[in-house]
Amino acid sequence: MMSKIAIIGGGNLGSAIAEGLLSSGFTTPDNLYVTRRNTSLLEGLKAKGVHVLSDNQKASASADYIILAIKPFQVSEIIHEISPVLEGNRHTLISVVTGVWIQDLVELTAGKLPIVRAMPNTAIAIQESMTCTCMHKVTETQQKFVTDLFNQLGKTVEIDEKLMDAATVLGACGTAFAMRYIRANIQGGVEIGFNAKVAAVIAAQTVKGAADLLLQHHTHPEQEIDKVTTPKGCTIAGLNEMEHRGLSSSIIRGITTSYKKIVEKM
Ligand SMILES: NC(=O)C1=CN([C@@H]2O[C@H](COP(=O)(O)OP(=O)(O)OC[C@H]3O[C@@H](n4cnc5c(N)ncnc54)[C@H](O)[C@@H]3O)[C@@H](O)[C@H]2O)C=CC1
Ligand SMILES: O=C(O)[C@@H]1CCC=N1
């Protein structure tokens, strides 16, 4: 029998996970439960046959794997709410919540559940997430299930929990950072003559191709840059101007600022 999955908090990330789980075929709508206070915002999932409800206890009681996709400040209240139905020999708790540590979750569940911390990004909706995981007291079956689940939804690496905040910045916030880079390309593209629609396709596909070059060639970005920059050409002229204006520096400072925000407990 297929394991049942409950997603508590069908917001941006929770809904993206649900979409990815369905489109990958990892689960079927009948085995998926998604909660949200205002369920009318989950009509799309409901139409696909997913169990959409506002009752977190009911969803948790129906599931084997419970994915917590709520805001950090809600974790304590919601675990308290579902506690009465949690069973140590049945449930695995998977938290995608930023800045909440395994030790916090162990304490909130009185140590009775296997716990997974996972940090995916919103590309999980199209099975292209980068997900970092770390696991606590899981059985081999549970570890395999969770690894298979996230592997179906993109790439997965298991990391030391002390790197989870860093994984949040690079892997999860990283989606937004990449979007701004692409948006700037679109704005520049319009200045030099394209309409916004065509500029958007060119910018997004170019960034996707650049990322795939690195993933498939296992090269360093500078090796790929060397193949593009014709001596005295337009690429190096543009690239150096971007660096004079602080491109790399501003990205590094953005990353370290995001990191500080998490470490200082948001
Ligand atoms: N959005 C992202 O790209 C990522 C988010 N995260 C983490 O995932 C968590 C969720 O983030 P988002 O989806 O962006 O936030 P969100 O605000 O879009 O989603 C949270 C959802 O929980 C629902 N909710 C609130 N109280 C509830 C309750 N009592 N019962 C059931 N549902 C309830 C809200 O209605 C909302 O839909 C956060 O902890 C965030 O740090 C982690 C990685 C990436
Ligand atoms: O901005 C945030 O706090 C969350 C964590 C990673 C993505 N969104």
From TrEMBL:
Annotated GO biological process: L-proline biosynthetic process
Reaction catalysis annotation: L-proline + NADP(+) = (S)-1-pyrroline-5-carboxylate + NADPH + 2 H(+); L-proline + NAD(+) = (S)-1-pyrroline-5-carboxylate + NADH + 2 H(+)
Keywords, ordered alphabetically: Amino-acid biosynthesis, Cytoplasm, NADP, Oxidoreductase, Proline biosynthesis
Molecular function terms, GO-annotated: pyrroline-5-carboxylate reductase activity
Residues the entry annotates as binding NADP(+): 8-13, 69-72
Residues given in the record as NADPH binding sites: 56
Domain Pyrroline-5-carboxylate reductase dimerisation: residue ranges: 161-263
The protein's annotated pathway: Amino-acid biosynthesis; L-proline biosynthesis; L-proline from L-glutamate 5-semialdehyde: step 1/1
UniProt xrefs under SUPFAM superfamilies: 6-phosphogluconate dehydrogenase C-terminal domain-like, NAD(P)-binding Rossmann-fold domains
EC class: oxidoreductase
InterPro entries to which the protein is assigned, alphabetical: 6-PGluconate_DH-like_C_sf, NAD(P)-bd_dom_sf, P5C_Rdtase_cat_N, P5CR_dimer, Pyrroline-COOH_reductase
Record has Oxidoreductase as a keyword: yes
Subcellular location: Cytoplasm
Domain Pyrroline-5-carboxylate reductase catalytic N-terminal, first and last residues per copy: 4-98
Keyword Cytoplasm: yes
Cellular component terms (Gene Ontology): cytoplasm
Pfam families, per the entry: F420_oxidored, P5CR_dimer
Principal location class: cytoplasm
EC numbers: 1.5.1.2
UniProt xrefs under NCBIfam families: proC
Described function: Catalyzes the reduction of 1-pyrroline-5-carboxylate (PCA) to L-proline.
Family statement drawn from the similarity comment of this UniProt entry: Belongs to the pyrroline-5-carboxylate reductase family.
HAMAP family, A to Z: P5C_reductase (MF_01925)
Protein name: Pyrroline-5-carboxylate reductase
